[in-house]
Structures are given as structure tokens and as C-alpha cells.
Amino acid sequence: MLEDKKDGWKAAIALAPAMIFLVVFMFFPLVNTTIMSFMEGFQFRANAGIFAISHRYQGIGFQEYINVLRDPIFLTALKNTMVMVVISVPISVILGLLVSVCLNNIKRLQNIFQTIFFLPYVTNTIALGMVFKVMFSTNNGLINLIVETFGGDKIAWLTDATTKGYWSALFVITCYTVWSGLAFKILVFLSGLQSIDKQYYEAARIDGASRARVFWKITVPLLSPMIAYITITSFIGAFKAYESVIAVFGRGSYIFGPAGDTNMWITVVGYVYKLLPSLMTPGNLSKASAGSVILLLIILAFTGIQLYVSKKRVHY
Amino acid sequence: MEVVLKSLSKHFTDRKGNVAKALNDLDVTIPSGKLIGLLGPSGCGKSTTLYLIAGLHKPTQGQIFFGDSDVTNVPPEKRGIGLVFQNYALYPHLTVRQNIMFPLENMKMPKDEAIKIAQEMADLVDIGKLMDRKPKELSGGQQQRVAIARALVKKPRVLLLDEPLSNLDARLRLQTREEIKKIQRETGITTIFVTHDQEEAMSISDEIILINAGVFQQMDHPQKVYDEPANLFVAKFLGNPAINIFHGQIKTGVLSVNGVELDKGFKGEDRNVVVGVRPEAFYLDNKGKIEINVEFVEHIGRDITVVGNVENQNDSKVRIIIPSDHYNDVFDKSRLGFTPKRMYIFEETGERIK
Ligand SMILES: Nc1ncnc2c1ncn2[C@@H]1O[C@H](COP(=O)(O)OP(=O)(O)O)[C@@H](O)[C@H]1O
Ligand SMILES: [Mg+2]
Q: Whose CA is nearest to atom 17 of ligand 1?
């Protein structure tokens, strides 16, 4: 018993820095934000400290949640976010898996290919966005050049405020999201693939399994912990989409679309940012907080469902 | 199915261009329907040989025949072999039933038929009641049986076992090797059994193939290999305790160790030779030719092992086995006689002279 207690203390001391960090930068803001979201008409008061409760407000209640849920811009942001989640997550997970399996199978030039796929991992996301913006620019972008070579008409990828422009912009955003997130997925999948015992594959070969069966019956199940991990983190990441939109339009932190519709691809996080106080506007902190709490609840619900599903499906 | 290996070689080349000669010019014919032990020390190329027969490795040189057909370039799945890996390689996410059914599903066999055959096979190896368990819920011995069932279920022409007993405890090893022998007899499948354990190979095999450092040494009936080792390596590798080695000389056709004449009639120049005598060939004898300084005595129960050394034979200990009744006759210095039939004479290079 005495031993246990001693070890417990040692563990506590070792964990302390991380715990303090978590409390100060994660737990405290989370609680503060939640409190703020119930404080209607929140306003900063000079020298009132960091606790939300000691600042000025008009009432306590759910009013800001109602305001958020009735706000058409929030509904647009929520719809946009959902569309991006539903499209980009499956594409990026499946693509990451395929690329990893291919990379794992090639013997020659493996390092070069790995480097190519890891480039976005070490490149500034905004810089990467600039590259995308240039590539997809209407008049002399590389992509339109290719489209024209194959006899198509120029596409206004990022400058068209109509429905067509909505989908073409989604295409660019999805490409950007998938590409920028691919490196990490490949990193995880490749290390997972390399930890699978080669003998399973030799056994399967002798047992006469086709390539497709080897992939579905051996690789996927043995990689399922990584697949579950990547899927869950991708979902969470996609729900927090913001910088992908900012990066591809490349016209400032509050502009989510072409000139005609600057909220075209606004996301929930973008919506929250727009409500924060800045030099230009006093903002609306309680509304912003309510928006973030709603996003948090959605992410929690999705993650809960996925953890439940993966408990049944994942082989550890 | 007779398996013929014709001057089979496998050399591995690493990135720096270093060549590891895992197998060199192996020429053997493995008779149909027999259980053959492939025996040799660790790293001598046993697994490599097995993987070549399985088709998982491509030979650097040479050919492999199954019966009359050349399978050298036939892919593994078309060779009709079953392979039991050293660590079984059971699919961890599949149940026992799914593991055994896997090869059948690959052949697109209807499901109920596959279930039925898998059950029969599981019953044969006595795991019929564990069909819904995952491999990690099984003991080593049970996993091993699943691996055998999976290898046998598609009725292979050749069954390959790579050190199948090495992960089992001593008691289970004995029991399982008898069962493997029994299953092999019942199915009549040509079986190659790889092991580095000479006792295991001796007890289970119809014939033994000995390899050392990728080079063929001898192939024969287990008793023959023990009684008539082809060279010093084989003599040393078989038998527990190992054969006793003495350094001797041949002078004008007479063989002597420490100046004591042991045998005569040898041809060729005067030279140094190596004399091997099996431990069980010795007996206590006041007029015996060899005197040993006894270091200690080990009791095995039925027998005792006497360990000692001989003057001028500094590097080798002498180990003899005598019935335990003779315990009281062992003194600090004892003279030993031996049965000449169990004495083998080798050139210093290892070739057998007599
Ligand atoms: N894939 C490989 N690449 C390089 N060397 C190998 C490879 N497989 C085996 N070897 C070498 O070949 C020799 C024989 O190996 P192996 O057949 O596994 O021996 P064992 O008799 O213990 O089964 C060893 O020296 C081993 O290091
Ligand atoms: Mg081996």
C-alpha cells in the first residue's frame, strides 16, 4: 500500500505540467466560454479579471442559443460545415489508406514518394492555400489550362457567386483539405501497415487469397485501430474547418466566398470568429460562445457515436 | 507427392551488395507420403528451404519438382501446399472457424460446405469445441493445432511445418509431436518438418535431412544417421549428450590417442585426426584404454552421466552415460573401455574416415 501511494505521488508530479497546461488552456476556457454563453449581453469591464462571471451582463439564460439557432448565417455555416465533413472525411481517409498501401508496396523510390506526400505536413497552410488559389485562378491558373487543353471552358473556380460557383469552390476546398491532411494520415497508416507481421501476407498467399481479399480480410481489419483513430480525428478536424476556406479564397480572415457572396462557404468556426470583438466591431461574445458550445456538442455527439461503432468493429 | 530439389540455391543480397548464401546446391528427393525431418542448427537455411518449396522465395538457382512437374516458377497458391509457420501466423481478428475456413473461402467453396469441412478438420486435430474463439484466447498448443488444421483443410499435396513445436513447453512438445506423426500417417500427406532439435527430428521423422550453413550434410533413416554419421558435423549434431571428441594421430597406419593405440590399418600419410566416441559406448573397466579425471556425476534417474577430462585433451570434456547401478564404481580417476562400433574417425576437415 505504502509503495502504491508513493508511486501515485510520483505519477502525479510527472503529470502535473501537462495537467496544469490542460487546465489553464483547455478546461478553464471551456468552462468560461460555457458560462459566457449563458450571460446575455456580455460586455467586458475594465480590470475585472479573467473570470467571465465578474464582467458585465444583462441576464442569464438561453437567449443567445436561440439567437444563434435563428441566425440564417449560422444555419448556412452549419450546412456548409456538414457538407464539408460528409465529403472530405471519407475521401481523405480512403485516399490516405490507398496511398499508404501503395507506398508500402513499392520498393523503389519509396522515399521520394513519401517526401512528396509529406510536403504539405511541413508547409505553412496559408502558403499552401496561396498555391491552391493560384492553381485554380480563372484566367491563367494551371487547372484551367488543363481543362482547356482537354477542350473544356474556363471555370470560375473561386470567383463565381452562383450555385455553380458554390460547388466549384467546394471542389477546391475539398482538394485543399484532403491534400493538406493527407500527410498525417499516411504517416499513421504507413506505420500501422509496417507493424503488420509480413507472415500474415505470406500465409494468405499460400492460402490462395486474391489481392482484394487480402486487402479487405487482412489489411483493413489489422489496420482498423488506425482507421478508427484517423476517422475520428478527421471528423473532429473537419467540423473545425475554417482556415481551408480562408486559405483558398485568400482575401482575409472574415471573407468566406467570392466578391458577390462573402459568406458563401462560411463555417461554424468562421461564424464564431466573425462574432469576436475586434478593432472594427464590439462583437458579441455571448453569441460567439453559444455558437462554440453548439459546435462542441455536435462534435461530442459524433465522436460518441463513432467510439461506440468502433468498439464493435475495431479489432485491437 | 514426391518433392525433388535440384541443385537448389538461395542467396540473399542486401542493399549494400553483401550476399548471404542461405542455401547452396541442395540436391534431395523427398519420398512421397513420408514425414521428413529437415534438421540443422539455427540459421542454417531450413526456413529458406521451406519457403523455396512453398514458393514464397524465388530460388537463385536450381529447380523444384512436385512429382514430374516443374513448379519452380509456379506461384505459391497454385502449388497445393500447406504451411505452418513457426509462430503460426493465425489471423488474430478471425475466429478459429474463420481461420480454418479462410483457404476454402478463397477457393470460393459454398459456405455450408466450408463450415462442414472446417469442423471435420478441427475435430481431427481435436479443437472442434473451440471454433468460436479468437487465437489469443487459445493456448500455444491449441493455436498450433489451428495452424495445422488451416494448412490441412485444403487437402495440400505437401505439408510444410516450420519448427512447429518450438513455442510449446516440453510436455506439450512430446504430446504434439506424436499427434503430428499420427495425423501425417492418417492423411498420408508428404510432410517436411523443420526443426533444430535433433531429438525431435529423430523421434518423428521417417528420414532426416541434415543441413549446415546452407550445405547438405546427410539424408537417411534417423537411426542410420546416428549410427553412421557422414561427417564430423553430423556426428556432433546428433545425440544428447553429444559425442565425445578426442584428438588423435595416425602414424604408419596406426591410430592412437594420447599414445594409446586404438585401431590400425589406416591408409595415407601420417596425420592428425579426430576421434568421436558416443557417450553410451563407454563402460567402466580397470583395464580400459582411456583414463579420465572425474569432475562430477549427474543423476538422470535410470542412468548417470559422468563428466571428466582426459590428459592432453585440454579443450574437450568427456561425458559418458552408464547405468546408475555403477555409481559406486566411479572414482576420481577411472579407466574406461568402449565399444569400438561406436567409435568414429574423421579427418581434421570433418570427413569421415571410418
Ligand atoms: N530475407 C532474408 N534476407 C537476408 N538474409 C536472410 C533472409 N532470410 C534468411 N536470411 C539468412 O539466411 C540464413 C538462413 O536463414 P533461415 O533459413 O531463416 O535459417 P533457419 O535454419 O534458422 O530457418 C541466415 O543466415 C539468415 O540470416
Ligand atoms: Mg527458421
A: B45
